[in-house]
Amino acid sequence: MRKRGYFGIFGGQFVPELLMPALLELEQAYEKYINDVQFKRELSYLFKNYAGRPTPIYYAKNFTRIAGGARILLKREDLNHTGSHKLNNCLGQALLAKNMGKKRIIAETGAGQHGVATATACALLGLECHVYMGKEDTIRQELNVFRMKMLGTEVIPVESGTQTLKDAINEAMRDWVTTVKTTHYIIGSVVGPHPFPIMVRNFQSIIGQEALQQLPEYGIDIPDYIIACVGGGSNAMGIFHPFVDTKARLIGVEAGGRGANVGDHSSSLGRGEQGVFHGKRSYFLQNEYGQISPAHSIAAGLDYPGVGPEHAYYKETGRAQYVSITDEEAIYAYKKLAREEGIIPALESAHALAYALKLAPTIPESQTILINLSGRGDKDIITTKIN
Ligand SMILES: *Cc1c(COP(=O)(O)O)cnc(C)c1O
């Protein structure tokens, strides 16, 4: 029998006892509201009239020509309000928290995209919001710090450890242990203890559900390949999940960074090992003592030393394939999409585009690749200019 909150051997709830009541309360509330007609109606209203969903699927003709092979379609999450898929999850969780009577929200953020999406949902729903962000990241992503403050959120710089995302998560967890009665922690990806991986995946599954409705416009029901970048894995899980029982081949693209050395990449599935961290069993970058190793990617949103447990399970079972793309390859694809299609993609999404450039010429022109374009790249202009 499958244990609750597990995907095979991955997942679980590896948290201090103090947090267990909060996780149980959250799980019960989630199960209640996700089947509640009023909740569902309100969330779909916000998706449609606030966030701008459904996001279109666009046939990237010029990019297809450059790649030279299979037809490439883009699911345009870059057109979602605030510029990425992140808001899908934040609207869902913030609405859930409000229904649970929680008035205070905390979140962690790396690049600031999840922080901005959380701050947005909290402004909309009248919730108090505090975002933990590594000090290093507050400097690298200054614009997003301004956006969060403009939205009425307190940004708390974290000075421990590497002063990046994993340290921000540690601080948010520390906060939550002492504030669980009044506070909900909006985790930004399919990571953390159960029920977060399932809950975040289900809120993000709107991406794949829409795609199923939209693909017939292009003469197909199921694409031959679906490609998405993988940081924690939420945009990938969001587009993969509704296709899991179909013949579509699922490919997750991790950050290969500058190369294979420790500290140069974020390929948790490709080069990491199994372990337990941030509440779950999954794959992590770690040293021989099981201590977490530093991650690197040119794309700040991929710069996390772990991955969601459901991806670990898909890797083990072979349902999805995981590959990596280097910083350099991602920048090439970033520039190509901008020049050929007039769409500046997020550097994260550019990892998926770069893999499509490799794959397309090796498969027949009659086949279709659906890429999840997880976000827009305005935030990355400075980074790519320097490089
Ligand atoms: C945060 C982010 C990602 C990575 O997060 P996942 O949970 O792996 O989706 C990818 N793309 C964009 C645009 C992001 O903001």
Shape descriptor reads globular
Q: SSE order, as H and E? A: EEHHEHEHEHEHHEHEHHEHEHEEHEHHEH
Mean pLDDT: 96
Helix content: 40-55%
Give a quick account of the main beta sheet: strands, pairing sense, barrel closure: 6 strands, mixed
How are the strands of the biggest sheet laid out side by side?
3-4-14-9-10-13
Beta-strand proportion:
15-25%
Supply the number of helical segments: 16
Our measurement of the CA-to-CA distance between the termini, rounded to an integer number of angstroms, reads: 51 Å
Structure description:
There is one protein chain. This protein is α/β, with parallel strands linked by helices and 387 residues long. Helices cover 43% and strands 20% of the residues. It has helices spanning 20-33, 37-51, 61-67, 86-99, 113-125, 135-140, 142-150, 165-179, 196-204, 206-214, 234-240, 268-271, 309-317, 327-341, 347-359, 381-386, and strands spanning 6-7, 10-14, 57-59, 71-76, 104-109, 128-134, 154-158, 183-186, 225-229, 249-257, 273-277, 279-284, 320-326, 368-373. The strands form three sheets. Strands 3-4-14-9-10-13 form a six-stranded mixed sheet, sandwiched between helices. The longest helix has 15 residues, at 37-51. The termini are far apart. It binds pyridoxal-5'-phosphate (PLP).
